[in-house]
Amino acid sequence: MLNHIMLATLDTETQREWELHTSSRADTPTIAELITFLESRCRALELLQNTQSLYIATANPRSTRSVRGKVSKPLYSNVATQIQCTMCNGSHRLFKCDTFVKLQPRQRLNYARQQRLCLNCLQTFFKNHTFSKRVCRKCNKRHHTLIHTDTQNQANRDSGSTTNNDLSANTKGATVAEVNAYHTLKGKTRNHVLLATAIVEVRNKSGQYIPCRALLDSGSQSHFITERCVQRLRLPRTQTHTSIQGISNVNTATHHSVSVHLRSRHTDWHTTLDCAILSNITGTTLPTRLDTSSWKIPTDIILVDEQFNQPGDIDLLIGVDLFYEISRPGRRTRPGNFPVLQETVLGWTTAGRTSPNTTVEGVKRAFLQRETSKMEYIIKHFWDLEPVKQSTRIVKHQAWEEHLHTHTTQ
Q: Which conformational region is residue 335 in: left (phi greater than 0), alpha (psi within -120 to 50 degrees), or beta?
């Protein structure tokens, strides 16, 4: 699980190198092996960036001529540049400087601008400078993570402090503007269709059973498991090519599979499945939480998924060859838009149409802001924002003006 989270934060090129590095292995690499790989890659990238090829050619025109049948060759030299921090003059990069890291994000951004550094790699611009393809880990924009600032909140704070200073210093006796805000919401009801889900226990590499959420699908001919779940269980994978065809002839393929042993949480039932590995089986089962207080679910049954009414991820998909094997004849229904309770060897599943529920997607929002202030304050504020530069006269013009004023009579 930790490997998957760390790989998701890396760039595409590093992920590709990691896949090539581990493609020949059948077991799941450990976190220590991933850290060792990242450290070695960082050292290699730093050496490549610090080494620049300089072309040295002789300025003597005679070198271009042939001497005794021999032609002079251009000379090349590899020069290693010394890394020097622009803040403390230490032999490290700026983003590794303790003094720079201790600053606030806004101060780090201002320092980078004053030194005219590249805001992406925090290095000085040089000839043939190439911009890094990495992005901020917080907002995915093209700047370094250390200089990331909440621009919207910061702009509001700066605007608020500027306005307060202007009011206290320049608007004595003026009326402060009054702002009224109105916010309205309108929701739209929508019927959801529940899919049959079950919480089962799956055995990991160490022999321990981990709860996972499975989707019971009678329309699938194969069983599937997510890459995230395989990483969490640390199961050994087998190289198996499987073609998958979905609705509207959408084709995809998977190249690995795992053997999964699962069991029920409430009964003695257990089985072993061969599951193809997919990066993602489906999205969250629900967009928002459903209110089940009026459903009156019987208390004498055991639900196989107690959180069926809450959004959640799917770890496994159990196909049709096991779907009807685990089904039992017990079934409970209720008139109206209520789901069906179906008995299985795992417990009771909940599936089908639900009663209308207000969803987040159907909410319509309206926002209105009204500002009331005196005309004098608005005009003064306008001139404060757009100051008019006073005209400057040179000494020659002033002398000529005084001469005309003195010697001119009507």
A: beta
What's the maximum distance between 2 C-alpha atoms anywhere in the chain? 120
Quick check: 117 pLDDT over 80?
Answer: yes
Q: Six-digit token pair at 398?
A: 């002033």
**Structure tokens given for 400:** 């000529």
Domain hosting 363: range is 176-182+358-390
DSSP string, 214-262: EEE-TT-SSEEEEHHHHHHHT--EEEEEEEEE-GGG-EEEEEEEEEEEE
Looking at 81, 113, 140, the residue that finishes a domain is: 81
Residues 34 and 116 in one domain: no
Reported as a single tens digit per residue, the pLDDT across 298-314 is 888 899 998 888 888 99
Answer whether residue 395 is part of any domain: no
CA angle, 292 as apex, 290 and 293 as ends, to 5°?
A: 135
Residue carrying the six token digits 């608007």: 171
Over residues 284-297, the pLDDT tens digits come to: 777 778 888 888 88
Q: Could you count the other beta carbons within 10 Å of the beta carbon of residue 129?
A: 10
- The answer on 347 and 362 residing in a single domain is no
The predicted structure's pLDDT at residue 167: 41
Written as six digits, the tokens of 376 are 């004098």
Reported as half-sphere exposure (CB side, CA atoms, 13 A), residue 143 has a value of 14
Cβ distance 147 to 137 under 8 Å?
A: no
Do 270 and 367 sit in the same domain of this protein?
no
